[in-house]
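Aim 2 progress update. The chain analyzed this quarter is reproduced below.
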Amino acid sequence: MNLLLSVLLALLVLGAVLVIIVDRGEPGGKLAWLLVITVLPVVGLVLYILIGINYRHHWFYNARHQRSREAFEQGADDDLRELLFGQGPIGKVKEEFQPLVRLLHKGSGGSLTEGNSFEIITDGHRKFELLMQDLGNARESIHIEYFHFGRDKGSREIKNLLMEKARQGVKVRFLNENVANLPISSHYYDAMKRSGVEVVKFSNPRYHLLNFVTKLNYRNHRKILVIDGRIGYTGGMNINDHYFLHWRDTHLRIEGDAVATLQTAFLDSWLTARGTIDRPVTEYFPMLQDWHPTPQPFNEKLMQIVPDEPEAEWPTLLMAANWVVQHARRYVYLQTPYFVPPSTLLSSLKEAALSGVDVRLMLPRHNDTLFMESVNQSFFRECLEAGVRLYEYEGEFIHCKTMLCDDYLSSIGTANLDYRSFNINYEVNTFIFDEQVAAHSLEIFRKDLESCREVTLEMVGQYPWYKLLWQNFLRLFSTIL
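Predicted structure tokens:
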């Protein structure tokens, strides 16, 4: 028996080694996994299966999304395919940003759309008011996909409204990111199911146990809500009183063709998670009909919504962030609560600053997640030495994920500037190509600066030795935090 187990372990180790060697990942990461598996075979194998496998291959993507692909192949007409998968009106984008549009399209399939009407929401109470109003007016369908859906007062009000709309006959589909919300009992959703809300777990061991085990480290970090196929919400805010009442975050309420991409991303996740739909796909996209968005603060704008995920062949959002930083001519300003940049992005930020681009990064003074404050700070010195300007937000926790560049590009999304968002999570970012929107976004950034303190090399130099040691120790595990 012992001999059989030893042979089995040896075969598993050999198989893992071969997989790592032929993988297209970074050599440094591959070497680290080979070392761990060689020194600690059992522990190394378990860790590699849970968090180390690289799924960025087309066959993984095709296998996982087979139900979604079949639904769109069978139900989408030519107009819908052009809207969802065409390149869009790229000629209307400034010439210097057109390569970014092509990169986003080829990497994720997200189309550039025009004629979009939207509001940039920077106050959680404002989002709550708009959301309750739009949900109350829903007539046909509500599709909701959030990383966190809480149990506090605001969350329960939205939950009760969803149940009321389901009882009225509105199709309410609720995609539950169950692994990230383990503290919330599954019974919390029972009343929703009884009212007619369709609740589907994003990761369900009942259907694919092996897939579930190997994806325990993966999270659906998206925030998507689509009402009647016409109104979409996306950005940084979850459904939680932290966002509605306290934290500083940025979100979008959108009408127009860009909502089609949000609807596609939701339906793809829904069908992949074994949810069902009751109509041909085309009927979930009423923007194809004769309909015009209602006026909002911004109207008739170019927008490209970009979903990303660990099975996609290319890390599109990471590539896009690198492209923007590398091609910025005057400035690039970024906000993120979690700063654990992959080596390529860290190099891009330092190179841009060294070349004279005004690179500014805003982070929270105190983080909501254990260890992340120290991990963020472990990158401070090398960024400051290269000329990157760092700011710590001293008010309530800031959760924004935004990027501004050269008075033209504004990006608002769910992805942090960290390894997890770029390589492990399911994310969605919105790219807006417009001078007016960029000017407004710049005003928001400058307003946030009023609540910040600028970090200097002198301040970093005053960190005690044990704090520096702790920061650099945690940085070793930055790819799994």
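The two ends are 38 Å apart (CA to CA). The chain has a mean pLDDT of 89. These observations will guide the mutagenesis experiments scheduled for the next reporting period.
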